[in-house]
Amino acid sequence: MKVPALLAAAALSSLFALHASAEQYQGVLQFHPSASRADVRAQAVAAAHSADPYREGASADVAPALPTALARKDVRAEAVAAAREGNPYADGAEAGLPQAFVSTLDRAAVQAQARGAAHGTL
User: What share of the chain is helix, strand, coil (3-state, %, to 5)?
Assistant: First the structure.
């Protein structure tokens, strides 16, 4: 009973040994530079004197100001005008100011009607 198990294990291990192969060594890779030594040195000096892009918080820098065609005084005037208009996002801001009620009746006539209604003479 031990012999067939040993033979099966030997056959299985030989099967694995046949299919196992190591990676072949290709030798040292050949490098063909496209830049001259002076160019590489100039790039290295420029990189050494520039900010480190991998430092902590490198992406948190202040963004540069965007160019604009407007003058500073024009932008300021627009900002002042917008501030004086009020909050456009407030509740009821789109409703505007309430309009005054305009009557076509005379004030004395309206008072007479109100007195009559109050005394029950209408």
Answer: 50, 0, 50
